[in-house]
Fold this protein.
Amino acid sequence: MYKFGYVAVLGLPNAGKSTLINRLVGMRLAIVSNKPQTTRDNILAIVNGKNYQLVLIDTPGIHKATSHLDRFMMKNVRTAKASADVVLYLIDSTAAPTAQELEHIAKMKADGLNVVVAASKCDKKHPNFDCDVVFSALTGENVQLLIDKILSFLPSSKTKNFLYDQDEVTDKPIKFIVAEYVREGVLQQLKKEVPHGVAAVTTLYQEKPNIVDIEVEIVCEKQSHKGIIIGKGGQTLKKIGVYARQMCEALLGKKVMLKIFVKVEEGWKDKPSKLTDLGYN
């Protein structure tokens, strides 16, 4: 018997959604940082088992929308929730769920959605609240139990009803993942408000037999932010580039020549046309 289904992965920022997805697909598909709103777009992650295929939808952390970009992100959350067979709601076990979270979960269940409530990061602290599964994406503890719980909501089929090939792990093109690696480098190197005003887009991707030439453009909101991203003597941008290049080489299995440019676009988060240019459709 086979099972297939879409799973929307929801939760507040830093609940561990992207870390779980990377664990399940076995690669650095979704970027991770300790800063909220790291994930901006819905990323499909395809998890293949012997008798099942789950398509996980990694969504932005639920937060209050204050810009066009925020509204785009929250629309992605609503779309994922409405189209999924199962909603996996993650709660950080190191902090008690908020009244807003509990209300959101109760409403989804009242609306008839299949909801699995899971407490993440149990390697740091075990939760003191009721949930369906307690797990750690970092150590792998109870991750299979989590998968089994999700599968329990999906109907069985005698025929293989998978929609994706066994070697597929995402719907996103390589150019998207490369740009996200660069943005992850920015998140690692910079603090405060600067990373939240940064986007990255791959402007050149040229694969040759032994090397891949890549150019990525970092877009920021202010001229002063551009200087911070580049850093004294270009050192910060160099560190961002080294990290992103190493990630790309690990993904592609060949040498990468990566060039990064920094551009200022004031107020880009509130410009619908610019958001489209940057891939936030």
Summary: The chain has two domains: 3-151, 174-277. The first helix runs from residue 17 to 25. The chain has a mean pLDDT of 85.
